[in-house]
From TrEMBL:
Pfam families: Glyco_hydro_10. It is an enzyme of class 3 (hydrolase). This is Beta-xylanase. It comes from Streptomonospora algeriensis. Its EC number is 3.2.1.8. The keyword Hydrolase applies. Residues 1-27 form the signal peptide. It catalyses: Endohydrolysis of (1->4)-beta-D-xylosidic linkages in xylans. It comes from the Bacteria. Keywords: Carbohydrate metabolism, Glycosidase, Hydrolase, Polysaccharide degradation, Signal, Xylan degradation.
């Protein structure tokens, strides 16, 4: 059953700019497990078309966060070309900022779903799944929460209400939720100072967050998500131990994901496949959720050919690590064109981190992803790929 037929891109763009009717995110009669079809009316040069049927290729949807301080309007709502590429190339989308607390829950007891609804609706119309980001984090929380004077009991109730309300609103529309984001520091210690929930309520709140999310949407896959956990290291070890404990306690944890913010200034994390595989062997789903590959730019501000080639190789290796692990069926890049990337805003002198230039010209890294997806589709599980050599 396909509850809603696919709209053409042109229609969809018109619909997006037209006044919104009732929030489209909450559809009647939508069966939880019927994700929009893996769309395949694309041309051969589209990433989503190149991808195997069981594999999602995604991107962040630009808006909020650092974008609000740039000299361009909100990319998702204002840039038609951006939406066109977003719809054509990807079959998974992650709101870059629009589902974070400061956007979706700006005042105590007041939710603002407008942007999140638009993204979820766009995704539905374009046959894309959505990764929800994020529910329990130390960053981008509103002042009313961080500076409020709440008792433990009140804070628990606030978190429970938030998770129940947000996850419940998009029930059946979100494939994976980053329930807990960046809860460990680089030494593999829980962030018990920065993270308001861990600081005020203790580590047991992690399990509660997963339980509440599961109650609100029993079919959403619930993830632990972090950066610098691509390879085997102290931080990913901490996640491995935590995952084992949560699973042993019967907590509805379904997956572990590595963000994949990589840099040419550091070697590629060579143990990425090994790391994802050990979570896979725990019975968890795995995903790569925020890939970009930044670099220190020459004085000209333009990357050299060599830099672009090495970058392409990093992208390819990251994707291949995921393709080679059976449970890793979702690979998301953190934006697709340099113009909207968070990298130059955060790291002085660095940039060119995405797969397309400012004007959407595809870089070698785009073609590296495309090629790796195409090969996997043609020869699933070959040679020696972990995906089992069959269509799942
Ligand atoms: O890309 C996001 C940027 O627009 C925000 O300003 C920034 C604020 O923290 O968050 C960025 O996204 C982050 C993501 O939510 C979690 N992992 C790291 C990402 C890059 O900082």
């Amino acid at each position: 059953m396909r509850p809603i037929r696919f709209a053409t891109t042109a229609l969809a763009v018109t619909a997006l700019t037209a006044p919104l009717a009732a929030p489209p995110a909450v559809a009647d009669g939508f069966h939880d497990r019927h994700w929009p079809p893996h769309h395949s009316n694309g041309k051969a040069e589209r990433l989503r078309w190149a991808a195997p049927a069981d594999f999602r290729i995604g991107t962040a949807v630009a808006g909020g966060g650092h974008h609000t301080e740039q000299d361009y309007p909100d990319p998702f709502t204002s840039d038609r070309k951006y939406r066109k590429v977003l719809a054509r190339q990807f079959d998974s989308v992650s709101p870059e900022n629009q589902m974070k607390w400061e956007y979706i829950h700006p005042e105590q007891g007041e939710y603002d779903f407008e942007m999140a609804d638009r993204i979820v609706d766009f995704a539905w119309r374009h046959g894309q799944v959505v990764r929800g980001h994020t529910l329990l984090w130390h960053s981008q929380n509103p002042d009313w929460l961080e500076e409020g004077d709440f008792t433990e009991e009140e804070l628990r109730a606030i978190l429970r209400d938030h998770i129940t309300t947000v996850v419940g609103r998009y029930k059946g529309r979100i494939q994976q939720w980053d329930v807990a984001n960046e809860i460990f520091d680089g030494d593999g210690e829980l962030r018990t100072e920065e993270n308001i929930w861990l600081r005020e309520l203790g580590p047991g709140i992690i399990a509660d967050a997963f339980r509440w999310a599961h109650q609100a949407d029993p079919h959403a896959e619930l993830y632990l998500n972090d950066y610098n956990v691509e390879g085997v290291n102290a931080k990913s070890d901490a996640y491995y131990e935590l995952s084992r404990e949560l699973l042993a306690d019967g907590v509805p944890l379904h997956g572990f994901s590595a963000q994949g913010h990589l840099s040419l200034d550091y070697p590629f994390p060579g143990s990425m496949e090994e790391n994802l595989r050990r979570f896979d062997e725990l019975g968890l789903g795995t995903a790569v959720t925020e890939v970009d590959v930044r670099m220190t730019l020459p004085e000209s501000g333009e990357p050299t050919e060599e830099q672009l080639d090495t970058q392409a190789d990093y992208y390819r290796q990251a994707l291949q690590a995921c393709l080679d692990v059976d449970s890793c069926d979702s690979f998301t890049i953190w934006g697709f064109n340099d113009k909207y990337s968070w990298v130059p805003v955060t790291f002085e002198g660095q940039g060119s981190a995405t797969v397309m230039t400012d004007d959407y010209t595809r870089k070698p890294s785009f073609f590296a992803l495309h090629e790796a997806l195409k090969e996997e589709k043609k020869w699933p599980g070959w040679p020696g790929h972990g995906r089992g050599g069959h269509w799942r």
